[in-house]
Structures are given as structure tokens and as C-alpha cells.
Protein 1
Amino acid sequence: MKHKTRKPFPENFFWGASTSAYQVEGANLEDGKGPSCQDVKEVPEGTSDLTVCADHYHHMKEDVALMAEMGFKSYRFSIAWTRILPKGTGEINQKGIDFYNELIDECLKYGIEPIVTMFHFDMPAALDERGSWGNPDSVQWFVDFARVLFENFGDRVKYWLTINEQNMLTLVGPVIGTLMIPEGCTNVLKEVYQQNHHMLVAQAKAMVLCHQMLPEAKIGPAPNISLVYPATCKPEDVIAAQNFNAIRNWLYLDMAVYGIYNAIVWSYLEENDATPTFAPGDEEAMKNAHPDFIGFNYYNTATVEAASDEEVLADAVADQQSGSIEAGMYKGFRNPNLVTTEFGWEIDPVGFRATIREMDSRYHLPLLVTENGLGAYDTLTEDGKVHDPYRIEYLRQHIAQIQEAITDGAQMLGYNPWSAIDLISTHEGMKKRYGFIYVDRDEFDLGTLNRYRKDSFYWYKKVIASNGEDL
Ligand code: BGP
């Protein structure tokens, strides 16, 4: 059903875009910043390192001015844990506090609402050495970090996101360079879900702390949510889709919103001897936490079919958005109704609406789009232009579906696509670009680092100015 009359976007809709610290800032060991897991990981051949990125650390004012020129109402960025606490715990790095103070003030100067992600794939290396999320103390490390953030920035930051894509950390951690599995671990699934459990408790406690310290602020999770379709109407395929929906999506939101473990996932963990151990107080902590909204990243849907008990895990797990497999549970299926990006991710704008509807009916909370977008090869022309009609088309179609979802009755807070500016991809280097602003550098050649407005920059400016009417 396409609505005959679509409801308008709300008046205070957060039109903006997103980045994350380790992918955009550069200056990765400058001004007292400690190394994160991203800075010490082995960089696969052919992938740019993270020392410079888009050099946002040194171009911050220029970058925020460009966002303001587009008319941004919000900017979602993450705070690098190791810029604030170089060793992850203990001593505070004042220069790190100063940088984010300046960034926040610069946003507010232009009336841009800062939306802050507390953790985006960048565990302090010093904490990795202490067992990372596998250490039960990680819950307290995160809560202590949260306190420092709330104390220093809570007077101006009103929107907080806890952990970016915790579900992707758990499902494809190695691809995005995170989640440590100790050597010699004999039950990897159990270890992974124990780490996941610590993150769930850490998130719950951070939400409670936020509400105690900053009664006016709002906080929510930021998983990557892709509705999962069955490959056919075969009942076994429907069960497979429910399995993957539970494992990929609902585990994270059922816990964040209702404080309960999703039953399908729990039974799957039981079967594999992989249920996490609860520390005293965990259950209560999870029940006590209530997000004010749900932040979510959406790139596409997933499709699965039934998988036999013999099918093995390993080979099919590629990255955040590509098909995966779990013996007896589900098996990725290429949806023949969808085209893909140059990097192999399916494109499904209508699935965006379907995903929003599903979340709305399961959780009844306001929804904030914290990522969405098209990774592509862009070319800077000799006269300093970037013609990216493919990106405009992708965004146009997705925004149109948000409006359909609003008309369906979903409460949408904002749209913050990935990414405000070109930055380093999780595992495809600089060549896979998402930004409205082009950064003149290549995979290895640092170029001039000059900024250029892409065609999508002017288009998005017009979309924002018309509050989504002029697509
Ligand atoms: C999400 C991450 C981002 C980001 C984006 C695009 O999973 O939250 O950090 O990079 O996906 O992914 P990629 O860089 O792999 O194209």
C-alpha cells in the first residue's frame, strides 16, 4: 500500500548525518589519545590505516560549517573512549575533553543537535589487554566512562546512544576489527555471548546512570536492524527467518526495551551450551533500564532459507550486511527481487518501511535512524565536482519510505545517514565512500585532504530546507 496522502515529517525532525571517531578523526595518537583496538589491529593489505582518516580532528570547524551549510539539524558522532581515557580507565586526558567540548559547541553555534554515540567499535587497546568485553569488569569500565561523558558533556548533549551495532560486534566482530576471542577458547559461541551479555548489562547500567545524572537527556541503543525475509512461503523458511530475526535483531531490542532475553535465542544458546553466566544483580539491572527511543542503522534487509543441521557456520559470514549461515537455524539467500550496490549490499527501500513498521509494533518507542546510505566509488572531476546521482537516488527512495512509515503511524525522530563526510570504511578502506562531502585523498595517497561538495550535498540541502517535501 502506498498512501494516497502522506503525513508530513514532524517539525523538529532531526535531519543530519553520522560519523564515528575512529573512521573520521585521524590524529589517532595525538594530544594524549591512547590506542584503541582499531589502532593496533593488523591492517589487511590493500586497506588504508587509521592514522589520518578524513583528518576531521584538524578540520573540525570547516566540517561542521559545511554541515551547517547543508542545514543539518543534528550531527551524530562518536566519542573516542581513548581520547578521553587513554588507558580506558583512570586518568582523564583534558585535551580529549577539550576537543569534544569544541565540537559540541561548534554544533550548537549553528543550532545542530549533537547526538553522541558512546562506543563505536573502538575498545581501548589497554582494556583489550585486560580481556576486553570478556572481562566481567568491562561492565564497570563502561559505566565509569559513561559517567565521565555525562559529567563533562551532559550540560549540552541531550541525545545519547550507547553501543553502536552491538549485534554486528557479536555476529561479525572479526570483520570490523573488534571482539577478542582468547587463544585456546574451546567454546567460541559461549565466549561471544558472554561478551555480548556484558555489553547488554553495561548498556543497561549506562542508561540508568544517564537518567539519574541527566533527567532531561534521552538515551537509546543503536543496533543494526534488518528485517529478515523468508526465501519462500515454505513454513521451514518462515521458521528460519524468525530464527535469524531473533538472533540478528530482536535479541538486542528485547533486552534494551524490556530487559529480557529473547526466548528463541536463549533456547539456541542452551542447545549449544552457550548461555551466558549472570553476575548477581544483572537481571535487575537489565529490567531497570528503559531507553527513551531506539536508534538504529539500516542498510538493507536480509533473506534466509532453512538450513540443515549439518550445514557449517564458517564460510558464509562476510560482513554486516551479507548473508550468513547457522546450522539448523538459517542460511543466507540472495533475494532475486533486489539489486545490489557496487560493494554487493542489497538495496531495499521498501524493506526500510517494513523494518520500521515491525520495530514500531514490537516496541512502541520513537525511532531515530542513526545510519543508512550508499557506499560507492566516487570520482572528483577536474573542475572539483562529484556527480553521485546513485547516492541521491538511494537516499531519495529511503526517505520516501520513512514518510510512508510516518503515515503508517511510526514515530520518527530523525534521519542521520552514513556519512556526513567521506571516511574510512570498516573493512573496505577509503575507496568505499558514503559522504555528502568528498575528501580529497585516496587509499594510500593522502592527497590535499581538501573538502568538495558532492551533488548529493546540494540535493540534501534542498531536502532539509523543504522538511523532506522536495525529494
Ligand atoms: C555500519 C557501521 C559503520 C559504517 C557502516 C558502513 O555497520 O556502524 O561504522 O562503516 O556500517 O559499513 P562499511 O564501512 O563496512 O561499508
Protein 2
Amino acid sequence: PAVPAPDDFLAVDAALTAEETAIRDTVRDFAARELLPGVADWFDAGTIPDPRALAKAFGELGLFGMHLSGYGCAGASATAYGVACRELEAVDSGLRSFVSVQGSLAMAAIHKYGSEEQKTSWLPRMAAGEVIGCFGLTEPDSGSDPGSMRTRARRDGSDWILDGTKMWITNGSVADVAVVWAATDDGIRGFLVPTDAPGFTANTVHRKLSLRASITSELVLDGVRLPGTALLPGATGLGAPLSCLNEARFGIVWGVVGAARTCYLAALDYAGTRVQFGRPIAGFQLTQRKLADMVVDVNQAGLTAARLGRLKDAGQCHHTQVSFGKFANVAAAQRVAAAARSIHGANGITLEYPVLRHLLNLETVATYEGTEEVHALSIGQAVTGLSAFR
Ligand code: FAD
């Protein structure tokens, strides 16, 4: 056999179907052509310049709700969706987050828990990228413990009145519809809130040092009146938003493999050309140790993602296995990005190279969709039978 390829050392992609390979190549080409040239400037500016155009482009590629079926969604395999996330996050975690929030959080909530009317009215437009959605679960005082949320929804005749504040909501300021989770007398329920509803405001969070090529917002709901049809009828209790998070985490398991791969390949390239003490730094044993650790991390993470993809395609993926993947792969990507940054020396702290941008993004990726600690506790509970959450 030939020497393995540096970026796919265990030949994981050889197990992709022809359709999955075609999706990989399409997304990779699009990302290289349309996203990579601008991403450092977007990160520098702390925004995505034209989120509507980006949504349209992602919609045309079939990325939104890619593995959902019907209602204008592509109906691809979970593995295909994962591969697409990997190729997007190879450019930037913020761009993969755009797709995760739209498809795996907002659309998945409607697809799983919406009425037939809600599905037909929202999903095709969201799949096409004509309508942008966001997902409001976190609050200023309620993060890892979403059951402590203070946002309330109360009945007024057949209407609902929503009051509360959501925080750290991706795409909140550019969304047309917000999936908002609120406590009611019957437990936690989900609502589809048009963002032009009176009493709804979204304020963009500034001065972030991570996920800068992504819009993050505070949502304020001040007596927002909604018709009874705004309630997601199938979503009762905290399990509903948590099951959506599980969908998005699956994309993260794959996505961070892309971020790690980019950092590793950048380091490999840099180490091969940067000469100190009369030879390329790639020739020093300490650098080779870093590169060996990186290639192991990138490819083991890739294998984990591929295995979870096949389990999910078979309908056999337990949420604690997704926790395993998020926990293991985000940490692996953080190690790789940190090592890649060190190999780049001073150049590594600039936006001329992708490494610190990815490392900073991964701080968010390790935090959202369940922190590293929360997933450690989830795995700990799965293997011991004992909950250490509270
Ligand atoms: P906390 O829950 O306050 O945690 C603080 C620390 O305490 C962490 O280290 C945590 O692990 C630890 N901790 C908490 N509980 C325990 C425990 N039982 N045992 C041990 N340690 C514990 N949310 C949304 O709803 N929608 C979005 O679109 C969205 N997008 C985001 C985008 C960005 C850029 C960021 C940064 C966040 C986003 N979030 C979003 C919010 C994210 O999901 C929360 O930040 C996350 O759930 C953690 O909550 P927290 O920040 O309140 O931290």
C-alpha cells in the first residue's frame, strides 16, 4: 500500500458513499471559492457581511436541514450532513454554526415538534435560505441548567404572552423567526416567534474574541403576543430542546475535525518551509512529535465522527455517544489548534494564518451545545449510572 495521505491518514473517506463523496467535494469547492477568501476579514470585522446572501447560497447547496426529509429538505444521510459540516468548519466554526443553527436547531425543532401547517409554512423557505431561523434556549442566568429558565409564556384567551430575555443566540439579529423556549404552567414549551412581532427586539453582542465570523445576539421578549398556532404542539418539557441540541452536536462532532485538519495542514506546510538553525523546523524531533500527535488527533476524531455517522444513519446513535464525540473531538481539535499555533511562531498570532482564529473559535465550540464539563458528566452518568449534575 501507498504512504497514507497526511489529511486522511486512516482513509476514513474511502468508506463514504458516492453521494457523500460528491457532497464533500461540492461543499469543499464552494468553501474554498466563496468562503475562505473572505473569512479572515469577516473575523477581523466581527461579522458576516451579507448573511442573507450567505443563507441563500447555503440553501442552494442543500445544506439547511440536509438530513431531514420532506418539506424541501435534501434527505441526505446523517454522514453526508456531517461531511458537509466538516468541510464548512475547515474554513471557520462560525460558518458551520450558521448551518447548525438553521438546520439542526431551528428547522429540526419545527420538523420534530411542529404541526403540519407550521412545517409546510416554514420549512421549505428555511431549507431554501429565504427565511433565517434562530434558537433561543440560553438566558443570561440559565446556561448549562436550562431548566432554570425565567422566560415565561402565559395564556391570554387563545393567545400566548411571552416575557423574558435570551442570551448568546446565534443569528438572533438577522433571523426572521426565533424558536423560543419558555416556561409555562405545563412545563417548558417551544414557540415560533416572528422577529417582527411587537415587543421582540434583538441586540447584537459585540467585542467577542471567539466565533467572530458569526452573529450572536440577545433576544428581549417584552409582552410578545402570539396566536395559539405559534406553539409547537409536539414539544413538551425540556427533552424537546435537548433533543434538538443533540442534532446540532452531531454536526459539531464532524465540524471540529475540519477545523483541526486545517490547523494541522497549515502547520505541516509551515514546518516544511520555515528554516531555523539551517533546516526546516519540520526536521526537528520536537516538531515531529507535535505533528505526530496532531495527525493522530485529527484522524481519531475523524474516525469517531464517521462511526457516529453510521450509527446515526442506522438509527442507533444514543445521545451519550454524541456526548462522547463532542467531548473527545472538541478537545482533540483544541490540542491540534494550539500545537499548530506554536509551530507558526509569531506568524501564528495573526489572521494571515488560520490557526489562532480556529483556536479562538474552538473556545466557543467547547462551550455551546453543552460545555466540556456537561458532556463529561453525561458520559460519567452513562458509565456509572450515577448522576453528578446537581
Ligand atoms: P454556565 O452554565 O454558567 O457554565 C459556567 C461553567 O460552569 C462552565 O465551565 C460549566 O461547564 C460549569 N458548570 C456548569 N454546571 C456544572 C456542573 N453541574 N458541574 C460542573 N461544572 C458545571 N445558546 C442558545 O440557546 N442558542 C444559540 O444559538 C447559542 N449560540 C451561542 C453562540 C456563542 C458564540 C456562544 C458563546 C454561546 C451560544 N449559546 C447559545 C449559549 C451556550 O449554549 C451556553 O453558553 C452554554 O450552554 C453554557 O452556558 P453558560 O455560558 O451560561 O455557562
Protein 3
Amino acid sequence: MRLTILGGGGFRVPLVYGALLADRGAGRVTEVVLHDLDAGRLSAITRVLAEQAAGVPDAPAVRAVTDLDEALRGADFVFSAIRVGGLEGRAADERVALAQDVLGQETVGAGGIAYGLRTVPVAVDIARRVARLAPGAWVINFTNPAGLVTEAMSRHLGDRVIGICDSPVGLGRRIARVLGADPREAWIDYVGLNHLGWVRGLRVGGRDELPRLLADPALLGSFEEGRLFGAEWLRTLGAIPNEYLHYYYFNREAVDAYQRAGQTRGAFLRDQQARFYEELGDPHAPALDAWNRTRAEREATYMAENREAAGAGEREEDDLSGGYEKVALALMRAVARDERTTLILNVRNRGTLPELDSDAVVEVPCLVDANGAHPVSTGPLPGHAAGLVRSVKAVEREVLAAAASGSRAVAVKAFALHPLVDSVNVARRLVEEYTRVHPGLAYLG
Ligand code: G6P
Ligand code: MN
């Protein structure tokens, strides 16, 4: 079985390969094709993978290519994990928004819109090529903003593209742990859009345990989201939001904290990863060693500014290892081997959330089998959540429309309608600045 990874020179690829090495079951991936536009990054990551595979019998073969069509032909699974504009682009997304006193963040608010506008045309091109060259392949989209990008691709690939994120499963696991429940046995009632969802219940043996958590300030203070949002607000909401909702509920504090921070997250990662790839410019440098060191440093600082500002504290070590690669591998196994499982994924709505149309990509629990990911029906969202979901989805639709038409006015509309952008004039200035700094936005005229 062949897996193609787009963005194959990316820093997180060894996490995926590590998960593949641990998979000994029948029907596992035997061949990995790495695609990247940057040959230097590809060769650095290829060396890391070779060191990971040393001594592992039957390690999946690795091939690196820079031609996209060649990478796609014959693929059974495609992981799309690209970053259009690189980390320099992410840093600019963050910086430009903060300069206008609105949230500058990778996937949320103005920063997320800029990233989406840059990424959608590239993702659509990939989707079209997959449809032509590997029509039977399953595409697992890691590329952020994951919900929006998955929706763009689904217009060409239908339900053969599935978006993933590590945050819902991580949140569910933390809540289960606090409640003394086995995360594998708990049913997590998580609903929303990517980076915009809420855990509304956690059922074990037919009983909802979430009320017990919401009633207990000590339990609420014992995990990350509990500290991030505060017991009182969580009790008022009656749900545990995804950590990204912090940017909505405590927007002013988040913007302040980011403005005060010396460096944005994107700028930090840009510099850190530049050092890593540079270090591996020396063909004798131990690659896995350098990667491990860089990774430890990256995770120690994960969203640190925001967490510290909010008193959320450190993330537990356990959670750092249960990320994207595990969700992706679980999904791939379920599809390839018909091992039925449930996972929280980004898929087309198909009637699951009545407040959105059928083609809107939502993030909900899905039953996964050889036929793909089937969203499970859920109860309706409370009014406040439905309102937010609908307005953010409306913004996503404007981003898709701007990318399809190249209309600058529609791009302004996307920014202006976002709940975290507080003036049409700010939206205009954001479009001015973003089109000035991002070559990938030249299509907006
Ligand atoms: C979480 C989110 C991802 C996001 C990442 C950012 O894992 O689910 O979608 O890309 O955080 O982490 P970073 O280390 O790049 O700031
Ligand atoms: Mn995510």
C-alpha cells in the first residue's frame, strides 16, 4: 500500500513515519512517497526517516519526488500537509493582524482568513489532480485551516477527502482522564467546525459524566481547558469548548498577550526550523538527533504565550504524543482494513447539523469503515454555538468565493464579516497589507 505525503519535507513528517513503523498489521503502508517543492527540505527529512528506520525490519520504503503528478499517480492514500507561504507566511499572517489590533493567529480570525486565501487555490489544484490521476485514493487533509481547506477539496473529491485535527481527541482524552474514565470507552459528544467546537457530554455506560465535572471546581481546575476558560464560565456555558474558542471568549486578552509577546509563534517556529534545516545542510550531521532536539523545544513552547497569559499551565507530556499522526493512522487503518471505529473528523455535513447545508464541512464524531467517514447524528447546537458556527461558516464561504473569483471585494467581505474583525475599514487595511506581503495573494489584484 502506497502513501503519498504532500509537504513531505515538513517538520512533522517523522511523526507520521514513526507511527507507520509501529504498525505491524496486515495491509499496512509499505511505501511512502514524499513530495515537496523544496528539495533541500526533502533530503533533510528523508535522512531523518532513514535513521528512524534503521534496524526496523520491513520498514516502509521511502521515495522523495518534487513532481506533484508523479507523487500522486498510484497512491492509495494521500496526506496533504502543505504550508503555502511557509512559516514566513504564517509569521506575516500573525504580524499584519496584530498591527491592526485584531487577532493574529495561524487558523483563527484575520490570520486564518489570510492563510485560507493563500491555501485554497493550491489545495483545489491538488484536489483536481488527485481526481484525475488517483481517483480511487483517499485524501487525508492535515492542511490548515483544515475545515475550510477540506471543504474546498471536497468540491472536487466529494467524501474521499477527510480533514483531521488533533485537538478534539486531545480535549476528549483530558476530560475523560479527569473524570476517571477510559478515553477509549467514552463517547465524546463533540460538535462544531474545526477549531470551533464544544464537548457537550461525555457518556460512559450510558451515563453523561460531564455534569459531574461542571459541578466540581476542583476537577475543573485540574486540566488545561478548565484553567484556560475558568470554572465559572464553563459552568455558565454548560460545555467545554475547544481551546481555540479562547480566542473568541477572551479575545481582548489574547490580542493583548500576543501584542506584548516579543515574537509570534510563527516567527519562533520559522527561526527554529530554519536552524534545523540549516544544521542538516551538513551531510554528516546526525539527522534524527537534530530533529528530536528541535521537536522537544517546539513542544515545550506550544502556544505557550497564550496559555501562560491565561494561567492554563503546561500541557501534559502524554498529550503531546497523541497528535495528528495517531488520528491519521487510525483513520487510514479503519478505511484500508475495514476496522470500524469512531473518530472526530472534518467531513461534509450531510444533515448532521441542521443549521448548516449538506456540503458544509463540519467537525463531528464519525463512524469510519472501508466506505469512508460517516458523520453520526447529534443533538442540535445551543443557540450561541449555532450562531457562531453559522457566521464563521459564512466567512469560510466568502473565502472560497474570493479564491474562486479572485475578487478583492469578496476578500474584504470575508475579513469584514468575521466576528473577530471589528470594522470594515480594518478589513480593507488587512487586505491591503496581506496582498502587499504575500506573493500567494497576487491573484486578488
Ligand atoms: C494544534 C492544532 C493544529 C495547529 C497546531 C499549531 O495541534 O490542532 O491545527 O497547527 O496546534 O501548533 P504549532 O506548534 O505549529 O504552533
Ligand atoms: Mn488542528
Protein 4
Amino acid sequence: HRLAVLISGSGTNLQAILDAIDAGSLEARVTLVLSNRADAGGLQRARRAGVDTAVIDHRDYPDRPAFDHAMIRELDAHGADTVALAGFMRILSSDFVRHYDGRLINIHPSLLPLHRGLHTHARALEAGDREHGCSIHFVTEELDGGPLIAQARLPILANDTPETLSKRVQEYEHGLYPEVLQWRAAGRLRLTTQGVALDGEIL
Ligand code: GRF
């Protein structure tokens, strides 16, 4: 299974994916790690693992479609059965989303549909939520709104801060993302017109 990973930052989820491949629990090959930022820490992680990297800086393109088409060219040149967003901080155009229809997956640090967008940990605390977590979903044109694949939930503790919460959520992310990607690698997970199907059953 050919996996491409899009990042903008430190890439701890990318690291979890690379580690799972190393450990044999994720039967995939990362064909490309693509970042929109040259200083993304995840690029080092990819290089250390001997994975091809590319930087496509959105500031070098006149508009979002031009940037997205540059990414499509690079991704398709490397081959990708699944494109995993792992802390990729740009909104994708409908052209991009449609091009990878059913192959594009994102991880988001909240229990969607709660807290789409940024600052999810602070917002969960402000809202007085008792639970928080992360969600993995197929990407559609609606931001953080695509069909859900899996979630991990954890209780919010009385003395949690956005930082402590973020740290605990990330630990769950690092377990869940490689697991879901293995479902893809094993051909068990599909996006159908009916919704998300795992082993042929609609979730
Ligand atoms: C994660 O919390 C992920 O849910 C969100 O961005 C963060 C990326 O962290 N989309 P990292 O770069 O994988 O460390």
C-alpha cells in the first residue's frame, strides 16, 4: 500500500506511522512526505527514515488551485493509494479533494462534529466538555466535516490545561492513526456512496 503523508509541522503522527511500518503493524510504504513549510520538523523524521520528501510552499503560488495542482503533480508522480493528512495546516481546494476522493484521510484533535478548526483543546475546556479526543475521517469539501472512520475518547480532568489535554490526545492519535491506515492497507476500509465501509459493513 502506497501512502503519502502531508505535514506542516513537527510530524509526531508521521513518526507514529513510520514506527508502525518499522514494527510491521502497518503494511505500507511511505512514498512521499510533502510539506508546505521547509522548516517542518517532520521532514527530518522522513529523511531519517529514508523517505522521499518534497516542500511545496504555498507562498510560491498565486492562488490555492495553483498550489494544490503543484501538490497533485508531486503526489501522483510518487504514487499514492492513500493520502494521509497529519497536521497539514492548509485548507484544500475542491479540485484537490475530488482528485483524491475516497483516498484522502485526516486526523483532527477533537470529537467531531465538535470543535472543527483550530484551538480544539482550549475550546473543549471552555465549553466545559467532559470528554475530548481525536477523530479520523475521510476528507470532503466541508472542513473537518467528512465521514467519520474512528474516534478515540478520553475524559477531561479537573486540572487539565490545553497543553496537558493536547499531550494526552496526541498519545491516542499516535495509536489510532496507524491502526486506521492499516485497515486501508489491508483493503478493509472504503468510502462508498452509502458511507464509510469497514469489512463491507457501513459504519
Ligand atoms: C495533530 O494534533 C493532528 O490531530 C492535527 O495536527 C496535529 C499534528 O501534530 N491535525 P504532529 O505534526 O503530527 O505532531
